[in-house]
Design brief:
This protein has 769 residues and is of the alpha+beta class. Helices cover 59% and strands 13% of the residues. The protein is built from 29 helices and 16 strands. The longest helix is centred in the N-terminal third of the chain and has 65 residues, at 13-77. The relative contact order is 0.05.
Length: 769
């Protein structure tokens, strides 16, 4: 690796000289670092050995204590008298004596083993507990010795009835004065070999303070925490606050070594662990690192202070020496920097500063010019936008104001063009890599170029950004002739159409105002192009609209009753092509007229839809009408083109429905005649009852019946009744009134009038012939 890679990125001569002086001071720093690391390692090893020795002493003492305790327990478990008492549910005189003897023996074992505080025997069959002074019930034993919030009576009894083999637990044991203290409790199931049939348990109690005294006598660091775990990693004893999580402590014990950890509050601790070879207990010592490293840190601090003073003094001297050499060079470069008005950055080599300073100066000038140009364009666009919207009064439109924005409105005639681009994506899909904003810029540039080429010499055009896809163009004509200016507008509109449709392939809507003779009328021209564009978007489609073509709209439309009836008849017969031809005639006579207003166009479309809906109620069932929802679909449309599209779709669906149900309608006349034949005698038989029977409207039933039979439905009913009456009149026993009732007439007068209408004579005259 080259030496250059080790040098700092700052390449000033001053810093190079300073670095050469300071590098001499690094030698004692490196040596001091090695010494500090070595001394720390030695101190760490000594501390670990001291902790290990202390734990071995504690382990030896504890192992002797637990061995003695467990030995006493084994003697009691093997007592034949105790084994005989365990299997009995009641006690006779001999058993009572044996219990008394057993109490004395418990007292003897307690007095022999000074570590044991109490020994109890639990008899499962009788639910009693025997101590060295008395025999008591199990609940009394729990209440007076081991009751606490940490274990309930049920949990305590479940513990005694469980299987145990020299298991140790930490419990709260009550003292005589009502207080309680921690105690280590040994539980051994009885008898010793019970094959899962526990008959009792032996309970030994050692106060925790006896363990604590042993530990405190051996601990050589007061701040250390001593912890004892049983063979199941349950904590039996802890003489200090929790410093580290248990998983870290047990990890150190399993590793059989010394490990250093950080606690949650950031303090460091050394964990030393050892395992008992007899009881399989784990003994852990958690010692704060600060206790051992305090003196080492003090020595290290003193050494660091001395070293720092040496470095500081050497650094100051190195600085002054470097400064003395560098001052002449700095004066030269600073003078050049002041003259060029550029800051001198010392990260460069001094001899390359001149080249860098010149390049930076040129770049800054270019950047400033670009920023000024951008700001000027934004301000000019905002100014022109305010003119269009009429937000600037005429007295502010002075020549000086225009010249400050680079605008030249020399001539009096003005016009405004408004452009709206809808589907830029159609272009960007063809030209990969060109964004929508770039397409707008291309369109504006092309229109501006076309205007400059098509306008007569001296004419001006200015593009104005209004919204994302909406921009305007203000044109100032040089020719005072209005017709010549109008021709120029025609040429400009043709070129704009050519640019959008053939070059850029994007859909657009544009509008052109009238030509106005004063700059104060530009807001009026802007209002005109907005109205024209709104009309174009309502009618639909792309293209260019001129305000003069729509400024005098008509507020009526041509849709006669005869045309409406023709459309309804074609729909009823299911003839879609003829129905659509009728609609095209209506569209042609109304929508294609540029003076036709957008509001009236909407009214016409809703009127046509109303005609279709009325016809649907005559020829379609309600479920079909509710399914296609014609009015709801029309209300969602934004343009007339969308309305026309949806009306044609609705018309197609209705005609298909009529054609699909045509066969069913052809059979209607036969069904109606059969119904009349079966119900002619009912005086309630009429067109209304039959329309309900066939689930169609009265008018549609009458129309279909007449189309298929050539006669009206009411004539058919009356003729059928008259024919039946002629047969009955041959029976002279029946009166005229009875004949009328039997043939469905409501009265003899109605019968006589109807009979005369169809036969030319009265029923009586017919009978006498």
């Amino acid at each position: 690796m080259k030496l250059r890679s080790f040098l700092p990125k700052n390449r000033s001569l001053f810093y190079r000289w300073l670095l050469s002086y300071i590098s001499i001071l690094l030698i004692p720093v490196i040596i001091s670092g090695f010494v500090s690391v070595f001394s720390e390692k030695v101190m760490r090893d000594e501390t670990n050995r001291a902790n290990a020795a202390m734990l071995k002493q504690v382990r030896q003492t504890m192992d002797e204590m637990t061995a003695s305790f467990e030995k006493t327990t084994m003697y009691l478990c093997m007592d034949q008298r105790l084994r005989s008492l365990l299997g009995k549910g009641t006690y006779d005189r001999t058993d009572q004596y044996n219990l008394y003897t057993q109490m004395k023996e418990l007292g003897m074992y307690i007095s022999i083993n000074g570590h044991i505080d109490n020994i109890y025997i639990y008899f499962r069959n009788t639910g009693s507990v025997l101590s060295d002074v008395n025999k008591m019930e199990a609940d009394y034993f729990y209440d007076n010795y081991f009751s606490s919030d940490s274990i309930s009576y049920e949990q305590f009894m479940e513990l005694l009835n469980g299987r145990h083999m020299m298991d140790y637990y930490v419990m709260d044991k009550k003292l005589g004065d009502g207080r309680s203290s921690k105690a280590i409790v040994l539980i051994q199931s009885l008898p010793l070999l019970n094959n899962g049939n526990n008959m009792g348990a032996l309970i030994g109690v050692i106060p925790e303070e006896k363990f604590s005294k042993i530990v405190n006598n051996l601990k050589w660091v007061e701040q250390a925490e001593f912890i004892i775990f049983d063979r199941n990693d349950g904590k039996l004893l802890s003489d200090g606050p929790r410093t580290l999580p248990l998983n870290m402590i047990l990890e150190a014990v399993e590793g059989k070594g010394n490990k250093e950890y950080n606690s949650l509050n950031g303090d460091r601790y050394i964990v030393t662990g050892i395992t008992s070879e007899t009881a399989r207990w784990k003994y852990v010592l958690v010692t704060p690192s600060d206790v051992f490293w305090e003196k080492t840190r003090f020595i290290r601090r003193m050494a660091a202070v001395g070293l720092l003073m040496c470095i500081l003094a050497g650094g100051i001297l190195a600085y002054f020496l470097s400064r003395k050499k560098y001052d002449p060079i700095e004066n030269i470069t600073q003078a050049l920097a002041d003259k060029k008005n550029l800051p001198f950055e010392k990260k460069y080599k001094e001899y390359s500063f001149i080249y860098t300073a010149v390049n930076e100066n040129i770049n800054e000038i270019k950047k400033a010019q670009s920023e000024i140009e951008k700001q000027h364009n934004v301000l000019r666009n905002s100014f022109l936008s305010d003119i269009l919207k009429g937000m600037i009064c005429n007295r502010e439109l002075t020549e000086d104001t225009f010249s400050s924005y680079g605008i030249d409105f020399t001539w009096p005639n003005f016009a405004v063009l408004l452009f709206s681009i809808d589907n830029i994506d159609s272009f960007t899909a063809l030209e990969v890599g060109i964004s929508s904003s770039d397409v707008l810029k291309m369109a504006k540039h092309a229109i501006a170029k076309a205007n400059s080429e098509l306008l007569k010499e001296g004419g001006r055009s200015y593009m104005v950004d209004l919204e994302d896809s909406l921009f305007a163009c203000i044109i100032n004509f040089t020719d005072p002739d209005m017709e010549a200016n109008s021709r120029e507008l025609d040429d400009i509109s043709k070129e704009c159409r050519h640019i959008f449709e053939e070059k850029l392939h994007i859909s657009f809507v544009a509008s052109i105002s009238n030509i106005h003779e004063d700059i104060s009328e530009i807001p009026e021209a802007y209002t005109e192009v907005k109205d024209a564009m709104e009309y174009r978007k309502l009618i639909g489609g792309s293209g260019i609209s001129r305000y003069e073509d729509i400024y005098n709209p008509r507020y009526s439309y041509d849709y006669s009753i005869q045309t409406e009836q023709k459309l309804m008849n074609y729909i009823k017969t299911g003839d879609y092509n003829k129905s659509r031809d009728v609609l095209e005639e209506v569209y042609k006579s109304n929508l294609y007229d540029t003076s036709f207003s957008g509001e009236m166009a909407k009214c016409l479309m809703f009127d046509i839809t109303s005609t279709i809906v009325k016809t649907m109620y005559e020829v379609c069932d309600i479920a079909f009408i509710e399914d296609i929802q014609p009015m709801k679909r029309l209300l969602k449309c934004n343009t007339i083109i969308e309305m026309k599209l949806h009306i044609n779709m609705i018309l197609d669906e209705v005609c298909k429905y009529v054609n699909e149900n045509g066969k069913k309608n052809c059979q209607l006349s036969s069904a109606a005649l059969e119904y009349i034949n079966s119900n002619y005698y009912d005086n309630n038989l009429n067109v209304s009852t039959m329309s309900k029977e066939f689930n169609i409207t009265r008018s549609y039933l009458s129309m279909l019946f007449k189309e298929q039979t050539g006669q009206t439905l009411i004539d058919c009913i009356n003729r059928f009744r008259v024919e039946k009456a002629k047969l009955l009149l041959k029976d002279r026993k029946l009166s005229i009134a009875d004949t009328a009732l039997k043939t469905g007439f409501s009265s003899s007068k109605v019968f006589i009038r109807t009979f005369r209408k169809y036969e030319g004579i009265t029923p009586g005259e017919y009978r006498n012939t």
